[in-house]
């Protein structure tokens, strides 16, 4: 009864305060406007290893590379700090993929599906495997995580080019925002939602979230949850580790538990899960946020170092 009253109250509130189904895009500093583009040639050549190191030496071919997939509404900016860490250490590469429909404009984002988002991860993996990179890993933050899990479930990886490992940061399998489950009911009325960005985040994330993409997000995490309940086995020789904030306003911490229960190694063993003392979503991305603490910076570097060490095994 209480749930019914809650749903009805939300419905009434939305109907009474419903916004225009299409936002007004007049601020050129917003990613949504379409003037800032992450898909131009310069951006792609900077972020994709298949572009900036397409003719590697034998030594480079045997250097580990992480294909890093960002989250919903984000851009390659989300993994800039891991890329900077890798450059400093010189022990691995980071290829930052831009999810399909992201980093372009609001209309492009609005019409994209979760399969579109995933397509760029697949394309970069295939390109790197074709070039001949021997040690390919994947990292997914937030929505990037279920996109990668789906690649495992759908048997995307071929026997001659299996990933060495998968690292997931604050994966979203269950949303902390329970009203997201109402998007199918409220979406047509709401049109879109908005998010507040810090000054340093502007231009790197969409401000407007069209209800069409919220439905795609729900479809993806619902599918992933069902697949995990059925059980998913990693490819032969593939390692997985999950790093999850204990407090997360976007991805419920139970997401990590569901992955732990649902994922197994090829031999049936458990995957690794590490719960982190953090209240940030995607705690490995600190640039652009306000009031970053020394503890948050220390945790980020600790996890980067852990990832680096795991690739050496």
Number of strands: 10
* Bulk shape: globular
Order of helices and strands: HHHHEHEHHEHEHEEHEEHEEH
Task: Give the CATH superfamily.
Answer: Alpha/Beta hydrolase fold, catalytic domain
Number of helices: 12
Order of adjacent strands in the largest pleated sheet: 2-1-3-4-8-10
Notes on the structure:
- This protein has a single domain, classed as 3-Layer(aba) Sandwich (Rossmann fold), CATH 3.40.50.
- Helices cover 41% and strands 14% of the residues.
- It contains 12 helices and 10 strands.
- The protein is globular.
- The N and C termini lie far apart (54 Å).
Observed structural traits:
single chain, 313 residues, alpha/beta, Rossmann fold, two-stranded antiparallel sheet, 12 helices, 10 strands
Q: Could you outline the blueprint of secondary structure elements for this entry?
A:
Blueprint: H1 2-16, H2 41-47, H3 49-52, H4 58-61, E1 65-69, H5 80-89, E2 93-97, H6 106-110, H7 114-131, E3 136-141, H8 144-153, E4 165-169, H9 183-190, E5 192-194, E6 208-210, H10 211-230, E7 232-233, E8 239-245, H11 254-262, E9 263-264, E10 272-276, H12 294-311
Parallel strand pairs: 1-2, 1-3, 3-4, 4-8, 7-9, 8-10
Antiparallel strand pairs: 5-6
Helix pairs in contact: 7-8, 8-10, 9-10, 10-11
Short description:
With 313 residues, the chain is of the alpha/beta class. Helix content is 41%, strand content 14%.
């Amino acid at each position: 009864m209480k749930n019914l009253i809650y749903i009805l109250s939300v419905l009434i509130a939305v109907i009474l305060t419903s916004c225009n189904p299409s936002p007004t895009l007049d601020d050129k500093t917003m990613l949504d406007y379409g003037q800032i583009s992450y898909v131009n040639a310069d951006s792609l050549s900077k972020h994709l290893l298949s572009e900036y190191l397409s003719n590697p030496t034998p030594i480079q071919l045997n250097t580990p590379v992480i294909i890093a997939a960002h989250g919903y509404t984000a851009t390659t900016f989300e993994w800039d700090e891991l890329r900077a860490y890798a450059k400093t250490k010189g022990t691995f590469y980071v290829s930052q993929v831009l999810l399909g429909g992201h980093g372009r404009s609001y209309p492009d984002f609005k019409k994209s599906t979760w399969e579109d988002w995933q397509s760029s991860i697949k394309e970069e993996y295939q390109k790197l495997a074709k070039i001949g990179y021997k040690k390919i890993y994947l990292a997914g933050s937030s929505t990037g995580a279920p996109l990668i899990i789906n690649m495992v479930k759908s048997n995307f990886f071929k026997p001659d080019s299996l990933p060495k490992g998968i690292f997931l940061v604050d994966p979203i399998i269950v949303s902390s925002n329970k009203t997201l489950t109402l998007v199918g009911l409220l979406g047509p009325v709401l049109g879109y939602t908005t998010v507040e960005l810090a000054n340093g985040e502007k231009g790197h994330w969409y401000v407007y979230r069209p209800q069409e993409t919220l439905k795609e997000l729900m479809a993806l995490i619902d599918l992933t949850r069902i697949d995990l309940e059925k059980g998913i086995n990693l490819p032969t020789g593939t390692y997985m580790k999950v790093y999850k904030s204990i407090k997360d306003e976007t991805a419920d911490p139970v997401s990590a538990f569901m992955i732990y229960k649902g994922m197994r190694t090829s031999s049936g063993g458990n995957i690794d899960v590490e719960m982190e003392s953090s209240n940030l979503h995607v705690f490995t991305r600190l640039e652009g946020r306000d009031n970053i603490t020394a503890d948050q910076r220390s945790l980020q570097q600790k996890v980067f170092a852990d990832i680096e060490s795991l690739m050496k095994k």
